Amino acid sequence: MGLDLTVLALDWGRWEGTPEAGRQELLHEAACPDGLDPGAAPEAGWVFPASPRVPWCGRYEFHSTTGSYAPHFWAGEGWDTARGFADPALRDALDGFLLPLVRDEDDMPGAGLLPSDRTAWGMRLLLVGPPARVAGLAAHWARAQPLLEGLRTDYDRHAARPGGSIADFDAFTVLLGEWAVVVDEAARRGWGLLGLPV
Questions:
Q1: Are the C-beta atoms of 174 and 167 separated by less than 8 Å?
Q2: CA 65, 70, 75: angle at the middle one, nearest 5?
Q3: Torsion of CA 8, 197, 34, 27, to 10 degrees
Q4: If you average pLDDT over residues 133-149, what whole number do you get?
Q5: Residue 139: how many CB atoms within 10 A of its CB?
Q6: Sheet containing 6-10, strands listed edge to edge, beginning at the edge strand earlier in sequence
Q7: What is the pLDDT of residues 109-121, one digit of tens each?
């Protein structure tokens, strides 16, 4: 079984006001609410609230990935391959938008968000985006989106992986578009984002 990704948007002030000891339980309830049929297909897109017990949190289900983290990883790999062929303005903007969403970062601002034992999932958060960081991601996307189509030919020539989860430029842009929905909604609310490995 591979790594999954569930993205939550949170009212950051309410999140920071939650005692550290109760944060894992809160995140688990938001990602996997009590009463949710485990056999049912997840709702695609945003679900607000993520749970009646966490009314200041929304959950995003990617419709193009079936919950797996792998397409996000391969989107990052595809961009790594194609970025050298991109217009410099697109390269700068998409680096600022995509890489913080799909790549490990040594300076990810996650210290102190969860108890140090991280027992709920046995691993760290995959994404941490306080509201200021989310606003920056939205600004990068606003610059990247109008330029993206200019990458089509070079992406398909150099970065396509036929049969893979991000097979071509169209699959790449579908996933980018979903991330844009995630970021833009969180930015509109002035909320932060967390990515959980569930």
A1: no
A2: 85
A3: -50
A4: 97
A5: 15
A6: 45-47, 57-61, 6-10, 192-196, 127-129
A7: 554 555 544 445 5
What average pLDDT does this structure show over 104-129? Answer: 59
CA separation for the pair 91, 30 (Å, rounded): 35
Single-letter amino acid, residue 113: L
> CA geometry: angle at 17 spanning 15 and 21, to 5°?
85
Q: pLDDT tens, 144-176? A: 999 999 999 999 999 999 999 899 999 999 999
Which of 10, 33, 23 lies closest to 198 in space, CA to CA?
33
DSSP string, the chain: ---B-EEEEE-HHHHHTS-HHHHHHHHHHHHS-TT--TTSPPPPEEESSSBTTBTTEEEEE-TTTTTBSHHHHHHHHHHHHHGGGS-HHHHHHHHHHHHHHHS--TT-S-TTSS-TT-TTTSS--SEEE-HHHHHHHHHHHHHHGGGGGGGHHHHHHHT--TTSTT-SHHHHHHHHHHHHHHHHHHHHHT-EEEEE--
Q: Once rounded to an integer, what is the mean pLDDT over residues 19-30?
A: 88
